[in-house]
Design goal:
- The structure is a single chain.
- This protein has helices at residues 17-20, 27-32, 155-158, 185-189, 197-204, 295-298, 313-318, 322-327, 345-362, and strands at 36-41, 50-54, 57-63, 69-72, 87-88, 93-94, 101-102, 108-110, 128-129, 131-134, 137-141, 165-169, 219-224, 228-236, 241-250, 254-256, 266-267, 270-278, 281-290, 385-391.
- By secondary structure, the protein is an alpha+beta fold.
- The strands form four sheets. Strands 12, 13, 14, 15, 16, 17, 18, 19 and 20 form a nine-stranded antiparallel β-sheet that branches. A four-stranded antiparallel β-sheet has the order 2-3-4-9, with no helix packed on it.
- A hairpin with a 6-residue loop joins β6 (93-94) and β7 (101-102).
- The structure holds FE2/S2 (inorganic) cluster and fe (ii) ion.
């Protein structure tokens, strides 16, 4: 009989550009630009101009001498020298070429080569973006000015338990990897609702990366919420009690994932944000309640007793984790070549939910969870966590 399904017959693979591309003017790029995103730790905004790349845009982050953070386009409004070489001063950032000085809101404060420091300097504005600081992170809004929402408060980060402090971290995926991950952000965001990779990738394939209970095949229920997709998964602990684990992927890129080590049961202790750097890179910011500074970093998975960056190539293949699985899907995965099944229901629901938001933005409406004015923008995640029910 003739051979069936050989690779020769493979159709050219295509990616779902609508869901993955984040540049200005793209559907997803515009959706993401309706929300605040963390773009740095508080300490990244300092007296030395710091380059960041966010949603495909190169920007300069700094903090003026008055302590105000600023985010501006690198190209100086005068004749284009980069503010990467600029000098941060009391009231803003000064370009190295002819000394134009810009405030954190882009206003031009000085043109030293012009008579009287520039009589019409008010006509010039360095392109800038608004920032707010919270939870140890610097958040930026890159969208249309008239659509700017409130920066949401998050209940599980506002309510600290006894002995707890708040910590922010930008070092990488929980499962290990470099700070900047070379693939599309959606490959990681979808992973939040991909409950079945936990027992396989983290439970069996690489040994127990978390705790033995997480290696069980869970019973899973997905539901669509007003802000994303929620997952409830059930497992039985050694002593017969039932573990109900509730996670959520919420707009715009929030990962609400309780510790898979189950060290502290109860309400989720940290929130992660997937920051799309551009179409083929992302990074993770985390803010969480910790007992000791450095706890978030210490929670990282070790494979074969080593951190991700300590592994040889042979060990990466023997003990693959989230980085290996997600990056190997490709810089932007080929959606046309996928075969989604029942265990991918969370992924399908999340994509559908995101498409619905794209339609709302295209129709001129606000996407979900946008609150302006004096509304209550608090996001409540106290129902997410590891909850242990009585004996089954
Ligand atoms: S190019 Fe920046 S001041 Fe001239
Ligand atoms: Fe994972």
């Amino acid at each position: 009989m003739m051979d069936q399904g050989t690779a020769y017959d493979l159709a050219p693979a295509t990616s779902d550009r609508e869901l993955t591309e984040v540049g200005a003017g793209t559907p997803m790029g515009e959706l993401l630009r309706r929300y605040w995103h963390p773009i740095g730790l508080g300490a990244d905004a300092g007296s030395v101009p710091h380059q960041v790349r966010v949603l495909g845009e190169d920007l300069i982050l700094f903090r003026d001498g008055q302590g105000r953070p600023g985010l501006v386009h690198p190209r100086c409004a005068h004749r284009g020298a980069s503010l990467y070489y600029g000098r941060v001063e009391q009231d803003g950032i000064r370009c190295c070429y002819h000394g134009w000085m810009f405030a954190v809101d882009g206003r031009c404060l000085d043109q030293p080569c012009e008579p009287e420091g520039g009589k019409v300097r008010d006509n010039v504005r360095q392109p800038w973006y608004p920032l707010e600081e919270r939870y140890g992170l610097v958040f930026a809004y890159l969208g249309p000015a008239d659509r700017k929402p409130l920066l949401p408060r998050i209940d599980v980060l506002d309510e600290l338990g006894p002995g707890e402090t708040l910590e922010a971290d930008d070092s990488s995926l929980g499962g290990g990897g470099p700070p900047i991950i070379p693939c599309n952000w959606l490959q990681h965001f979808e992973n939040v609702v991909d409950s079945f990779h936990v027992p396989i990738l983290h439970g069996v394939f690489s040994g127990h990366q978390f705790v033995p209970a997480m290696a069980q095949m869970p019973q899973v229920e997905w539901s669509v919420t007003e802000r994303g997709v929620r997952v409830e998964s059930w497992r039985t602990l050694d002593d017969g009690r039932r573990l109900r684990r509730v996670t959520e992927a919420a707009l715009p890129t929030l990962r609400v994932v309780p510790s898979p080590r189950l060290g502290r049961s109860g309400v989720v202790e940290s929130i992660g944000w997937v920051l799309p750097i551009d179409d083929t890179h992302f990074r993770i910011y985390v803010a969480g309640r910790v007992e000791q500074p450095g706890d978030i970093g210490r929670m990282r998975s070790k494979m074969n007793g080593k951190f991700w960056w300590e592994l040889s190539e042979a060990e990466h293949r023997q003990f693959p984790g989230d980085y290996e699985a997600q990056v190997s899907q490709g810089a932007i995965t080929a959606h046309s070549a996928e075969h989604l099944r029942t265990s991918d229901r969370g992924v399908a629901l999340l994509r559908r939910f995101l498409r619905e938001q794209l339609r709302r933005v295209a129709a001129g409406d606000d996407p979900a969870c946008v609150v302006r004015g004096d509304g209550d923008a608090t996001l409540r995640f106290a129902n997410c966590g590891n909850f242990i029910a009585a004996q089954a």
